[in-house]
Amino acid sequence: MRAYSTSPTLIPASLAAGPVFLLGLAIAFWASEPTATWSPMMTQELIALPFQLIALGAVASIVGLILGFLPIWIGTKVMTWLSEDNEGMQLPIVWAIVGGLAAGVSAWLALGSDNLAAQGGAIAFGFTGAVCALLSRVSSDFALRHASG
Fold this sequence. Notes:
The protein is mostly helical. It has 5 helices and no strands. The model has no long low-confidence stretch (mean pLDDT 83).
């Protein structure tokens, strides 16, 4: 049984949590009503959009780091522990499924499924959980050891 370090894996995933959540919200709401998310009048506002996205991404990274650090740390510790003796648990798809289900199902239970906004939030949390789990897995010790041969 080998102990793996999880310290370098937490920072990229925690910083990405906020922007990935916003992307997940945009995808969820676009999928629920694709015609309502774009209008011809919005083309005039596209000039300021890159600056707004940079500012929003910076704020989302800070908020995501604060809110996402503990769940990402717990999930990384649990998945690393489960992966020590089981090579099947080291597969990236397993990490993505577990991260997505853990975040998505817990958000769905907390938010409920009454309205479209709650369902979109649960989808965004599930998407965020899957992406953050993959980012944590990519820089884990066993992934780096397997990549180096």
